[in-house]
Amino acid sequence: MTDTLIVQLIPPISGTHDEENGAVNYAAHWLHISSEATSGTSNFKTGELSQLLQQPPDDCQWIVLLPGEDVLTTTVNLPKKRRRQALSALPFMLEDSITSDVTMEHTAVGPDNIQGETLVAITRKQQLRDLQKLFADAGIIPYRILPDYAMLQETPDTWQVLVDGERAIVRCPDSTGFSTPLSRLPLLLNTGEDPESDKSSRSVQWFRLADASVPVLPDDWKISEQVVVNPLQHLAAGASNASLNLLQGEFKVQQQDSWNWRPWATAALLAFVAICIGLLETGLETARYNRENEQIQTSIMELAREALPGVKQIRDPQTQVLIAWRELNKGGAGDAGGAEFLPLLNKVSSTIGQQPVTVQGIHFKDGTLTVALQGTSLQQLDELRQQIEQQGLNASLLDAGTDADSAHSNLVIKAMSPQTPRSAG
């Protein structure tokens, strides 16, 4: 079993500023309860919270008690249906009970009391943020943060009052609570009592040190007393039943002793769906690439048949076209072999590539190479034709035309036969 460390912050907890370390510090009592111990106060200490955080005990569940002066509790009637929607609007339902900006306050929901009302605790968000940061800097995650009166036992029709020095820690009959200077307690008890209740049944249960004095209440109050050895030890006895945990909403932390998989179930399901969709998309993409590859291979085969009209069987089009191109190069560009596709294309490609024109298509048949071009003007395309003719080829423009900002034409190129005189351009 794990030990428990209960830390009770001493009011006021506005804190003192440590000039040396630049941090907020708090005065506190703390009680280290061993899982093997049954009683005793030998582990009770008082000091600065920073002193405890410098050398914290190992393997402890930390329970932090805020002074009741800093936590307001009340009860609300929440509908049984649409309870979740009602809880989301709860801070605005309590605006009349809160003097500060409701957006600056943190609301925690407790259990229902015997009257069926829901217990609600309200405290400052910044206070909880400062505390969590202080503990986080020491590598500690508190198991619970509670108002100190939440550790007192809930007793119907009886006010539970723990005298802690000059303070009174009170648990009310309706399960709410507060902490106050002891001198103000009689006034608050009379104010908080239901005026329609039977005054003869009003009762207070005092818990105090042997040498502590208690204020005088009217005779119509039934008073019982119990002497305690240490106030914090008395609070610690109710640790297992305290249910008003302030670590909710943005301040909620995971259990330290076990990993809760439920919050991740939705994320895991979404991740699984995403993986399935990814695999499906990969399969579809692979099928598309295979179809495109088949189309490319078919196109290569058709081009090879056009480039090699004398070859009856084509098994490896790339290799067979390369061999034929090398054979044609051996014969030179001026003989009959120079009129074949690859030598002719090789001869004009560099000239076309040097011009700011776009090649939209290439066709070769019967020794004639037709290149569909798009340029800025017909004059530009004609200058390109003249440059090709200067290489000893016959070139002409067919189907020339213009658009709004471009010109297009088919450049027809073929090797010049020996008896054909070269065009003067």
Q: What's the total number of strands?
A: 19
Write the CATH fold name of the largest domain.
Answer: Nucleotidyltransferase, domain 5
Biggest sheet statistics: 5 strands, mixed
CATH class of the largest domain: Alpha Beta
**Strand-pairing-aware structural class:** alpha+beta
Provide a count of the helices: 10
Spatial order of the strands forming the largest sheet: 5-4-1-6-10
Low-confidence stretches: 331-339
Rg, rounded, reads: 46 Å
> What's the domain count?
3
Mean pLDDT: 81
Given the C-alpha coordinates, what overall shape results?
A: rod-shaped
Any guess at the CATH architecture of the largest domain?
2-Layer Sandwich
Q: How much helical structure, as a percent, in the residues?
A: 25-40%
Structure description:
There is one protein chain. The chain is of the alpha+beta class and about 425 residues long. The chain has three domains: about 5-155 and about 230-260, Nucleotidyltransferase, domain 5; about 260-305; about 315-415, General secretion pathway protein M, EpsM (Gyrase A, domain 2). Helix content is about 30%, strand content about 30%. It is built from ten helices and 19 strands. It has helices at about 50-55, 85-90, 90-95, 125-135, 185-190, 230-235, 260-305, 315-330, 340-355, 380-390, and strands at about 5-10, 15-20, 25, 25-35, 45-50, 60-65, 70-75, 105-110, 120-125, 145, 160-165, 165-170, 175-180, 205-210, 220-225, 360-365, 370-375, 395-400, 405-415. The strands form five sheets. The protein has a five-stranded mixed beta sheet. A five-stranded mixed beta sheet has the order 13-12-11-14-15. Helix 7 (about 260-305) packs parallel to helix 8 (about 315-330). The model is unreliable at about 330-340 (pLDDT under 50).
